[in-house]
Amino acid sequence: MSNAGQSWPPVETEPAVPHPKAPQPGSKLGVHYSHCFGCGDEVEVGLHLQSSVTDGPEVVSEFAVTEAHQGAPGLAHGGLLACAFDEALGAAVGNLLRKPAVTAKLETDFVRPVPVGSTLFITARLDGVAGRKTYASADGRLDAGDGPVAVRARGLFVTVGVEHFTTHGDKDALEKLAASARRRREEWDINP
Ligand SMILES: CCCCCCCCCCCCCC(=O)SCCNC(=O)CCNC(=O)[C@H](O)C(C)(C)COP(=O)(O)OP(=O)(O)OC[C@H]1O[C@@H](n2cnc3c(N)ncnc32)[C@H](O)[C@@H]1OP(=O)(O)O
């Protein structure tokens, strides 16, 4: 059953105002972690989402569906599609608000099948903020930004401190990631 009838966001929110240093419309968003299943370039069978910011502001992510993503023959697996939306929504929240946030809740409506060989254009937007909670939603359209809607999703992202990752994650990998982010920022400062 579709969740379209339920009120969204489910609580009173304030508008989600992008951070002054959020990437500008037209910017391509890079890989946030090379081992990320959603966007990482070192995960051979990952989803390899490529995202950019549009005015709106929204984040559009392209997901090219391959044989590695099948559930039934020739059709994308629903769980992988949900993963693509987690990544696309997370990229919108993280990049537009520039705050670390994790997915607390993710709802997905599968409206039509997504064939292998198609590209899903996922447009994600921020719907509101209530304290640490950010609500976001997205539509995935087949083969073009104005193609037929195949999947819709909405989610709740909760802002966390860096200790969320240092306590529960891999500290060494985090330090390497932070060092490479610092290097990238220095390159930006030298060659803006
Ligand atoms: C520049 C930066 C660029 C970055 C780019 C990044 C791109 C990233 C792309 C990657 C994308 C991939 C991203 C991923 O895949 S992230 C990986 C998947 N997610 C997780 O692993 C998260 C696991 N969960 C937790 O760690 C904790 O449960 C969290 C941190 C979420 C909350 O535990 P915490 O103890 O901290 O806080 P709280 O429990 O007081 O909750 C806080 C508020 O939230 C409300 N609540 C919580 N859960 C739910 C729920 N299910 N439905 C409805 N409401 C819920 C709760 O009622 C409360 O509301 P209120 O009482 O305040 O009103």
Automatic annotation (TrEMBL):
Membrane topology of this protein: Peripheral membrane protein
CDD domains linked to this entry: PaaI_thioesterase (cd03443)
Domain called Thioesterase: residue spans: 74-134
UniProt superkingdom: Bacteria
Reaction catalysis annotation: (9Z)-octadecenoyl-CoA + H2O = (9Z)-octadecenoate + CoA + H(+); dodecanoyl-CoA + H2O = dodecanoate + CoA + H(+); octanoyl-CoA + H2O = octanoate + CoA + H(+); (5Z,8Z,11Z,14Z)-eicosatetraenoyl-CoA + H2O = (5Z,8Z,11Z,14Z)-eicosatetraenoate + CoA + H(+)
UniProt subcellular location: Cell projection, Ruffle membrane; Cytoplasm; Membrane
One biological process term in Gene Ontology: fatty acid metabolic process
MF terms in GO: hydrolase activity
Keywords: Apoptosis, Cell membrane, Cell projection, Cytoplasm, Fatty acid metabolism, Hydrolase, Lipid metabolism, Membrane, Transit peptide
Region spans: Disordered: 1-26
EC number(s) recorded for this UniProt protein: 3.1.2.2
Predominant location category: membrane
GO cellular component, one term: membrane
Similarity annotation: Belongs to the THEM4/THEM5 thioesterase family.
Protein name: Acyl-coenzyme A thioesterase THEM4
